[in-house]
Amino acid sequence: MKLLTTLLAIALSCSSLTVFAAGAIEGEVQRQPLNVSAIVIFLGFVAATLGISYWAARNTRSSSEFYNAGGNISGLKNGTAIAGDFMSAASFLGITALMFGAGFDGLVLSLGAFSAWPIMLFLLARRVRNLGNFTFVDVVSMRLEKSRIRYVAIVGTIVVVVLYLIAQMVGAGKLIELLFGLPYEIAVVTVAVLVLAYVTFGGMLATTWVQIIKAILLMTGVTVLAFLVMKEANFSFSELLRGAADNHPLGERMLSPGVAFKDPIQVATILTSMLFGVLGLPHILMRLFTVPNAHEAKKSAFYASLFMGYFYLLLIIVGFGTAFLLYNNPQFFDDNGQLLGGGNMAAIHLSNAVGGSLLTGFMSAVSFATILAVVAGLTVSGAAAISHDLYAEVLCKGKPDPKKEMQLTRITTLLIGVIAVGLGILFQNENVAFIATMPMVVAASVNFPILFLSLFWAGLTTRGAIYGATLGLISSVALIIIGPQVWVSVLGFEEPLFPYNYPALFTMPLAFAVAWFFSISDRSERAGIDRANYHSLLIRSEYGEE
Questions:
Q1: What span, in angstroms and rounded, lies between the C-alpha atoms of 289 and 204?
Q2: Residue 150 sits in a domain of what CATH number?
Q3: Model's pTM, two decimal places?
Q4: Mean pLDDT, range 405-418, rounded to an integer
Q5: Which helix (H) or strand (E) holds 340?
Q6: Of 58, 99, 113, 375, which is the most exposed, with the fewest CB atoms less than 10 Å away?
Q7: Which of 113-122, 386-395, 430-439 bottoms out in mean pLDDT, i.e. has the lowest?
């Protein structure tokens, strides 16, 4: 997330506070003076990663090396890269912004973001790695009718990737406008050009190292920031909480749940969307194929869980630190008592409060670098969906011309970059908070059900999977449209037809139920083949091809 993911941009209808994550900053922003430290650090990051891309390009000659780095990444490196792909600017800025404004309720997002990884470790990592080659679509098509199920899974992948890209590109433009003083359009084009350089020439190998470097930088920066915050609190967590409550306008209420999320169903549907959305994100699942075997895939999930658990624990300190140190410091507020740049800049202002301009520049540059890493992963995933899943496996029946496949891959990458720039500029003045919620909801309602059922239910048929995924896609998009963010905030109606922004609590069970019903009622010849294929798939998923 990546992000976490840009879906941390939530318009909180239950309070006067509106929080926008880095992936969904919107509206007019107050351009800040040029931050020289941030520019220098960011240029250093760019120089290093472009050098890596040049090296990776010399070692990327086949489609396999492009899609999964040849399957030669170790579990530790891959786990770090997964963490880098998932720990986004939205996590760092969005969660701390919510804790700055509403306190304890920010932990809801941390819990939802982290909870998926133990499930990935114990439930999916080994089976997915043993069954797939490049994408999660390889897995779901293993036992089902390959062409039809690939079409559905490809649509799900592309929808998630495009929606994620819109939010990330708009976030990049607004974030750089805020932090570096650069025009929005320049920021969007800069992100696209850099990502295209990483992906077009270096493929997954370059993307992996970009994500590793970004993960190390982000964890280092947050560690230093948390240490300095605890130093201000005399290394006493109780003193930190007491000081946060004393300074915060909410007082003791900010240490209790129910400020931002009053409705328990709202909390449940947010957690459902985030938890199962992560398990259906194509660019995250794709990383399980960059390791040589299932053992390394489980190690990847373990290290990713370890690093992200550490990161989210530190965000608790950083989040409460913003309340502890910013509310009593008028230099960070305007004449109307509003935080300069909005609540989303709370973590950046905290960096300035405890570490001065150097730490501020470092964290600003890292925030931008996180977007580069996430967009790079998304671009590889989108390119693979077209060139591998559609061209190589469907149109060429699994026997593509390797040179043409690589050419198509790079052309697709360029097209994705152009589309990302166009959509980023097109949506720069629109309310994109709802767009940031959609990738997780769609992934939880389309990708996860068919992946889970194909791995764990012998009765799944091609017809059931197609109907379930299709209804999951239609219902998730429809409920988001008639929910508060679109129906009220965008379309201007007084009341939403559906009360929740994150409908996965309702649409994911619908997808499972439809897949189940149309599978058990399927008496076709193809259904018999699908059910019979489960035994061989089960053996291979547990033990590999051997």
A1: 11
A2: 1.20.1730.10
A3: 0.83
A4: 85
A5: none
A6: 58
A7: 430-439
Parent domain of 104: 6-427
Neighbours of 544 (CB within 10 A): 14
From the CB of residue 497, how many other CB atoms can be counted at a distance below 10 Å? Answer: 13
Count of other CB atoms within 10 angstroms of residue 309:
15
* DSSP 8-state secondary structure symbol assigned to residue 333: B
Structure tokens, 184? 């929005």
> Would you say residue 493 lies in a domain?
no
Question: SS3 letters for 83-152?
Answer: HHHHCCHHHHHHHHHHHHHHHHHHHHHHHHHHHHHHHHHHHHHHHHHHHCCCCHHHHHCCCCCHHHHHHH
Token pair in block for residue 97:
């912004």
Domain count, the chain: 1
Residues sharing a CB contact under 8 Å with residue 376, sequence separation 6 or more, in sequence order: 195, 198, 199, 206, 207, 210, 211
**Cβ contact 208:78 at 8 Å:** yes
Residue 520 lies in a domain: no
Q: Is residue 120 part of a domain?
A: yes
- Using CB atoms within 10 Å of the CB of residue 546, give its burial: 0 to 12 exposed, 13 to 18 middle, 19+ buried: exposed
Tell me whether residue 461 is in a domain.
Answer: no
Residue 4 has pLDDT above 50, yes or no: no
Structure tokens that stand for 46 in this block: 């760019």
Closest by CA to 362, choosing from 28, 92, 30, 83, is: 92
Question: According to the 3-state scheme, what is the secondary structure of 261-312?
Answer: CCCHHHHHHHHHHHHHHHCCCHHHHHHHHCCCCHHHHHHHHHHHHHHHHHHH
pLDDT digits (tens, 9 = 90+) for 439-467: 889 999 999 999 999 999 999 999 999 99
> Quick one: pLDDT at residue 7?
32
C-alpha distance from residue 434 to each of 24, 169, 266, 333 (Å) = 9, 15, 15, 28
C-alpha R_g of the chain: 22
∠ at Cα 156 (150, 158), nearest 5°? 100
Residues 243-248: contacts with CB under 8 Å, at least 24 apart: 243/324, 244/103, 244/320, 244/321, 244/323, 244/324, 245/323, 247/323, 247/324, 247/327, 247/328, 248/103, 248/323, 248/327
Q: What's the maximum distance between 2 C-alpha atoms anywhere in the chain? A: 72
